[in-house]
Amino acid sequence: MRKTSIRVLLCSVALLVASCSGAAGNGGGSGNGNGDPGAAPAKDATLTLELYSKFTDREEKKLNEVIEGFKKKFPNITVHHTGNQDDDKLDQSIRGGTPPDVAISFYTDNLGNWCQSGAFQDLKPYIDRDKINVDQIPQAVRDYTTFEGKRCAMPLLADAFGLYYNKDEFAAAGISAPPKTTDELFDDAKKLTQYNEDGSIKVAGFLPSMPFYGNLAEVWSPMFGAKYLGPDGKSGLANSPQWKEMFEFQKKLVDFYGKDKVEKFKAGLGDEYSPDNAFHKGKLAMALDGEFRTAFIADTAKDLNYGTAPSPMSTGNSSMYGGGLVTGTIIGMPKGVKNPGASWELIKYLTLDTDALVQFSNGINNLPSTLDSLKSPQLNHEAHFQTFLDIYGSGKLVTKPSTAIGDAHLKAVNDFAEQWVAGNVPDLHAGLEKVDAQINDALAQKQGK
């Protein structure tokens, strides 16, 4: 469904206020510009909601079906939905003074910049007024929808990451259960790996390449308890035993295969979001991915005999088994909207209405973003998907930190990992010190320090 999977939905709610403008056919409440929440649209006000999203095809259709529930609640509101939009268009619209009234993005990485710049408004006045209990949202999810204490977004569905494994290949290798530790992951990877007659890799037990498919530093780091930023808000990877352990684990896998063999094997694999995905084709015996992979497999690899499990954890991080990385879509209210009260009603419906969340979750195989919706008997509890529901409800979730530099810190670490695997970094500590300096310089420049 998305890269690390992550996608963009831009909802534009253009709501005119007849009570103020006197325009025929439009009306509703509006904010007063002093930070107080805007009033909900009047029941006799005729409003048009312009909805932008990145969704296309099946997912766009599912979103439209969810919106029908909103229209039943507000029959005086017409929703016009345009798919295949993105964050760049959102930024341009805000800068140009013609923003959508509601915006949903797949990229939590952009939230820090939007919050800091004021591009997204603070939703706390609406939450306080409507007495919303944000505790129904898991803590890690609350974390990735806030920045420096400001709640300028709400979550709309979530992604949790775990381990996918090929049951037939496990049985052939004599492995009875998925690995729970990174040591077991390494041992199983060796047993599961198969070679062609020329010595090249035929099936990789577990691929060490990064970034590639779901192999991203932000997906691996929770397995080792590695954190991007310290309590001081700065990057300190070089002095982190957890980051050192993660990269040494990666190198151990590379050394087992041979870096040239890894690169040759990787070059022959299909695209992550195509039917030729290497896990779909049995070329990867184990892979890290989000719950959305279950929908792709059901659609393009129906005969694949696979299982799902939580990500393995390092020995020092074993208490976190059952948890893992969580991320997801975010929904906010851009600055300059004409009717913030009506914008909030759409945000509230999409993010807090249990029936709407369950319907959307079942429709696109993403996790519902509230604990109430997680308990719904109407929720899809198919075995492969249930693993990720359990991860989401584990209380052991880890998320990526929101920063004012967007995803620059994530990219810096993934770029380093790629160079590390290629053998271009002779000294791990010195290499990570350079990454720290790069990230900290970017943070300082953004903060004007």
UniProtKB/TrEMBL annotation:
**What InterPro entries does the record point to?**
Bact_solute-bd_prot1 (IPR050490), SBP (IPR006059)
Which PROSITE patterns does the entry mention? PROKAR_LIPOPROTEIN
Q: What span is annotated as the signal peptide, if there is one? A: 1-23
Q: Which CDD domains match?
A: PBP2_UgpB
Subcellular localization is given as: Cell envelope
The main location is other
Keyword annotations from UniProtKB, A to Z: Signal, Transport
The record's similarity note reads: Belongs to the bacterial solute-binding protein 1 family.
Chain's role: Part of a binding-protein-dependent transport system for a sugar.
Q: Which PANTHER family does the entry link to?
A: ARABINOSE-BINDING PROTEIN-RELATED (PTHR43649), BINDING PROTEIN COMPONENT OF ABC SUGAR TRANSPORTER-RELATED (PTHR43649:SF28)
Annotated protein name in UniProt: Probable sugar-binding periplasmic protein
